[in-house]
Amino acid sequence: MIDLHIHTTFSPDASHSLGEVLKAANESGLRIVGISDHHDPQSKMPDMAYISSFNEYVNSIKDARRHYEFELLVGLELGIQSTVDEIPEHDFDYMIYSVHEVPESYRMERLPDPWTSYLRECVNALRPMPYPGFFGHLDFLRRYVEGHEPLYQSALLDEVLIKIAKVDMGIEVNTSGWRHPFFEQNPQAWIIERFIELGGKYITVGSDAHSKDVVGEGIDEALRLLKKLGVSEVFYCKYGDYVPVPVISLISAVEA
Ligand SMILES: [Zn+2]
Ligand SMILES: [Zn+2]
What's the CA gap between 12 and 149, in Å, rounded? Predict the structure, then answer.
């Protein structure tokens, strides 16, 4: 199994330390593990997430490598916005690039047309990045909008997907949606298919775990879904590039 979206207590909203999370990852049989703590340099949220020492963060992940046999990657969930141009520099293997808010509000769901505001901000925030990576939980706004109304097809969504592909970024299938009342991964299956149709190449999977108990949760289901959609490889990143892994090799043996 693979899980490229995991938080530790380097994120203010996560419950378990790097050591605890890695132990849990090992027990769940993960083979490729990416730590991706929050860094939202321009957030207006009162409890905004910010990594104060990248040396400490990056080195503790690198140091932990000697204790485990799985592939342990240094990631970061970078909050991107149209107004942000500060990309931290360090030995990152990859980043999860997420739009969590728009300049006019950190509560997008309170805006008159939340989906349009979100998608516009995605288009404006997307640009070539110094690290390979994946656009985080596209359509996650569903967690907050009234009735958890899903995203519908639009020219603006296409523009977002085309731009992701054009800047050589991938998308993640984020399984945390299965822990929300709409009970579906982010993004929806048709959006994944549309991304591929529009030239998207790189897809990964992540649990977005903020607790050790859900590390790897839903990943098997996400991989099965990708297989059903005809996706044969998922990706992680190393040495500045995308590395393919056959989907079939990552699905648990039981029902593979
Ligand atoms: Zn996020
Ligand atoms: Zn996250």
Answer: 28
